[in-house]
Fold this sequence. Notes:
Number of helices: 11
Largest sheet: 5 strands, mixed
Mean pLDDT: 76
Number of strands: 5
Helix content: over 70%
Strand order of the largest sheet: 1-2-3-4-5
Number of domains: 2
Order of helices and strands: HHHHHHHEEHEHEHEH
Oligomer: single chain
Structural class: alpha/beta
Low-confidence stretches: none
Strand content: 5-15%
Amino acid sequence: METQDQSEILGRQRSLRQFAVSQLVLAVGATCCYLGLWVTTGIWHAGVLVVVCLLYTIGAVVVYLLAGRGYLGAPIALNCVLLVAATFANAVLAPGLLPLLVLLPILTLAIALPFVSGRAMVALSAAVVIETGLLGVIGMYTRWFEPLPTNALQLLIAIVTPTAASMIVILLLQYGSRLRASMAATHAANSELRALRDGLERQVSERTAALQEALVEVEARSAEQARLLAENVQQRDTLRELSVPILPLPSRALVMPLIGALDTQRIAQAQTRALEEIVQTRAKHLILDITGVPVVDTQVAQGLVQIVQAARLLGATVVLAGIRPEVAQSLVGLGVSLGEVVTRATLEDGVAYTLERR
């Protein structure tokens, strides 16, 4: 952005210097014409016009130098002042040049147009309109000095007209170059915006595709997790059933071998499984084999008693089998009373008891 601004400022300085050169050429030409007219005719106000043109020439040189040093405001102001002063001096001293002099205020406005905007431009436009009106009044209704000879006036018009036209052409070329540069900058900016838009669309498409892939992956992982969870639940149910298995016997009896350490959860599972099987099979006997239980403490004993009592309420007799000597000593040491629970030393004895009671 800074580089672009610097380039624009340099372009304005270059345009101002080019216009100063054209003014310098016009001033030198007008000076030579007025000087020749003064020498050949001896009209004194032609000499005054020579002085005016010399001052205008010096001012054009100053404008050129200031523009070359990087100034813009001061050269523009000086240029406008020079054009206004030269225009009024020529209107008073050589009213026959009025058709050409009317163009100079418009040139003043055209010169300042790239550098002035807003209220300043409105004020300058109003000043140009007023100046043009004053020039018309001065050129038509004032005759303070002897008019220039017709031949000299025609010569001045023949010289000044193409020079003024050249200045206008230079301004038009500068505006055209500036317009083309602006259009090129606009085109470049539009191209950059289109490239950015295409890049953003491409990024959005890529990110959308990545999000869709991530969503598909998340859905796949969710389905896999759901499947694993279902398998886990199934395996847990299987393990629960295997942890408290129940084996049916022909004599309407059930055998529940308990293996491993018993905690509150396993005892509750054993009670639930035993009661469900008793109801479903209408069993009359339930053999609890605790041969594989390493330790029977107060909690385990109370849980077994609860299973016995619950099964008895359903009309089934519970036989506690597989009581090893160390388990018996542990129960006695704990002071646990099994009450009316039927006990047998081995599973075979328990099965034999149920066969006797069928």
